[in-house]
Design a protein that fits this description.
Keywords: Cytoplasm, Glycosyltransferase, Purine salvage, Transferase. The protein is α/β, with parallel strands linked by helices. Helices cover 33% and strands 31% of the residues. The chain has six helices and nine strands, in the order H-E-E-H-H-E-H-E-E-E-E-H-E-H-E. It has a domain at 52-174: Rossmann fold (3-Layer(aba) Sandwich), CATH 3.40.50.2020.
Length: 178
């Protein structure tokens, strides 16, 4: 399926979660078998070309796409979790949100020092979570140079922010001004 066909499978919900926001709902994309498979194929091709040795996915929708790409490429999947979700010793990073702060954690033993890890997620908005993920993975010893997203919201500046964090961005589709 062509990227424009895949984009048409993403449902837009106006005024969610608050008035003025156009929520991009990927559940309609993952609910379309051929569309989901084509999306995973696109992500996997990018990850393969990047030379990644493992894939990190951010909770929660990054688990859907990241795990699927990991399985397709037979690469390890590294879950990046919200605080307090892992039953083992963790390392973590705090990061700013528009309305406060949050924390991401991971099992530091899941990364081999020097391992090339690609990040995979459903959506890139401001880039805060993705930059925090890159910092966390690097803290664990990973090399993080590439991130792959299903959707980019370019007007929110996430790709630029990730570039400042030393991470190259690729997105299957974008929703700019619409």
């Amino acid at each position: 399926m062509a990227p424009q066909e895949l984009k048409s499978l993403v449902r837009t919900i106006p005024d969610f979660p608050v008035k003025g926001i156009q929520f991009r709902d990927i559940t309609t994309l993952i609910g379309h078998g051929e569309g989901f498979a084509a999306t995973v194929d696109w992500l996997a091709d990018g990850v393969r070309i990047s030379g990644a040795e493992a894939i990190a996915g951010m909770e929660a929708r990054g688990f859907i796409f990241g795990a699927a790409v990991s399985a397709k490429l037979a690469l390890p999947f590294l879950p990046i979790r919200k605080s307090g979700k892992l039953p083992c010793d963790t390392i973590g990073v705090d990061y700013a949100l528009e309305y406060g702060s949050d924390r991401l954690e991971m099992d530091p033993t899941s990364v081999v020092p020097g391992q090339n890890v690609a990040m995979v997620d459903d959506l890139l908005a401001t880039g805060g979570t993705a930059c925090a993920t890159a910092r966390l993975l690097r803290q664990a010893g990973a090399v993080v140079e590439n991130a792959f997203f299903v959707i980019d919201l370019p007007n929110l500046g996430g790709a630029e922010k990730l570039g400042e964090c030393g991470v190259s961005v690729a997105a299957l589709m974008d929703f700019a001004d619409d």
